[in-house]
Every structure is written in structure tokens, then in C-alpha cells.
Amino acid sequence: MSPVAGCPLCEEDGGRLVLRTPRLRVIRAEDDDFPAFYRVVWQDHVAEWSDLPAADQALTMAAVTAVERTLRAQLRPTKVNLASLGNAVPHLHWHVVARFDWDSRFPQPVWAPAQRAVDPPPLQRLSVVPQALDDAVKAAVAAALAPSPPGA
Asked: Is 1 part of a structural domain of the chain?
């Protein structure tokens, strides 16, 4: 499928690239308020979930699940939010966001107005530095997407 002119997820990665495969990519959003905000982005320009064949849906969900499990294991967040909205950017992507009871918007969505100041800043509150978290996410997603050995 061809890229769509003007689509930000066709024209650029959409954040700090963690992993790229032929079918999808995982990025970390560059958001100071939410340093553990990842996106799983389908490589081709597809607007709706139901446009993907079942096998591609399963592949995407394997990646989303791997990101979520990694965030839970590494950070022990209060909650992990999953969302696929696409209203502003109609290119299929899933948000995977580690949320904490101390974050500026909790328990409201990440897009809600801030309810409180966070001090120290969110990045300093994480138990893992972003690069180590990215490495863990990359390894988990790669393992989740690896083909099963014959007879497994």
C-alpha cells in the first residue's frame, strides 16, 4: 500500500523508533508528561482495524501485548492504557501508556487537562531509564513476533 501524502505516520516514525519490522513499528512518544508512552504503528496506511486481515490483527495484538507486559514488568504502573482512536491521525496505531497514580492527569485520560503538578518530573520517577525500557520493549516485541520453531 502506498503512503498517503499529509499523513504524519506515513511520512515519519511518529516518535523515537524502538523497533521496525516489515509490517509494523514500535515507537516511544516524545512526551515529557508520559515517558512510558508507546505506539504500535502499522507500516502501511490503513485507517481501520477491520481493514486488516485476521493474521495481521493477531500480529499487531502480539506486539501491543508484548509492550504492555514489558511496561508492567519493568515499571509496575498503576494501570496501562490501550487505545486506538485515529481521529486526528487516521493511520492505524495503538497507544500503550503506562499510567501512575502520581501522573498529572490520573485517573483521567492522557489527553485530559492536567490536574496536578508532578515533582519530581515524571522521567525522574521511573524506575528504569528510557533507553533500557526501549531495549526491553524491543526485545519483548521481537520475541513475540518471532516465528515458532517447527513442531512447537
From this structure: no
